[in-house]
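ESCALATION

Customer reports they have been waiting on this structure for their group meeting. Please prioritize. Original submission:
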Amino acid sequence: MSIRTLIRGGLVVTAADELHADVLIEDGRVAALAAHGSAVAESWTADRTIDAGGKYVIPGGVDAHTHMELPFGGTAASDTFETGTRAAAWGGTTTIVDFAVQSVGRSLREGLDTWYAKADGNCAVDYAFHMILSDVNEGTLKEMDRLVGEGVTSFKLFMAYPGVFYSDDGQILRAMQRGASNGGLIMMHAENGIAIDVLVEQALARGETDPRHHGEVRRVLLEAEATHRAIQLARVAGAPLYVVHVSAEEAVAELAAARDKGLPVFGETCPQYLFLSTDQLAQPDFQGAKYVCSTPLRPKEHQAALWRGLRTNDLQVVSTDHCPFCFRGQKELGRGDFSKIPNGLPGVENRMDLLHQAVVEGHISRRRWIEIACASPARMFGLYPQKGTIAPGSDADIVLYDPHAEQVISAETHHMNVDYSAYEGKRITGRVDTVLSRGELVIDRREYTGRAGHGAFIPRSTCQYL
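Update from on-call: job pushed to the front of the queue and completed.
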């Protein structure tokens, strides 16, 4: 039976507005908003009233880039859909878009069905899928059309990882042409993997085996070159392009130049590039392995360009690329050879808090926080206004956020299934207090009340920026 819920007395913050309003929820959706203290709001009755006094009432976060249970480098990401979506909820994220993987020589359908099976009945919050294309051919191009019809409307290709996920320029062009015709959005991991492999081989031959060399061989210029090339291929195909995990000033410049020409080119960055740097990658005693991800962490100087890109909308989205591997037994596979360290960082639980800290520090405004973490990812991937905002008819995915609470990020207290935190010891202001997913309490005043199986698969429409 549906419970009628009333959230009273908070500051409602969306990408468009800030207002002191009460929010009425019925049948898992937002029924109405009214100014706090108004006659309309005062007339409402509910089965459950939640006091939001002194708190922000914000849309649940949309993390458009996660990798739960991803097989990689002889192991697999340590978060399952159950543990990962529970941690997402603790961090104020109520929708994830994960990546289903096509294996080389297999169909997209088989890959997608494998990921449906992993997630079904296990998620605490709602989820959707992108499709990784590892093998572009006539059969898989036809399958792209069918997947778009099924609500899987974005396709990721890799210019990196030869022999694993890599696609050459011809395959990329064909996939982009298909996206241009069926409405699918092509997502690109933009690094020149062929050149990187040469530099990896040369570094290892010189005895440069420590984690910091992972960042040194994956050169900034090879991210910028691949970003430029992806943009030009998209222009030839007449297709939109979304570049994932942008980490470097030179890559941002390529995106900005394309957008200045009016091209439908979009960019995402991640908290690790905004808050971490090669300083972490260079930690002694192999501790730097914790920070190995691709694209890699960059020198601190790049952070200013990323923040600027978020302010000028040359970067539209902050996702996590959450792909956790435990230090013990997983990251340690690369002792003596940095190229064997599984690539990925944990972060699905930290994104909303870190971006609120960016508000506290003056990098972005409150509304921009909600825009890059909730509204823009929902629009980019065809989930808006069901997700990403608080408006009549939207899913009641709502977070009560305490902007004054202080916390220290630590593996001791996080809920991700990984044995370290990338932000260990970082003091931040702001914390999730209460989380609703489709009107159901998942976190109730810092107590987990959710359940595996509440989260539903959400079919997506095509990109809403086009």
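Sent to customer with the following note: The longest helix spans residues 220-237.
Escalation resolved.
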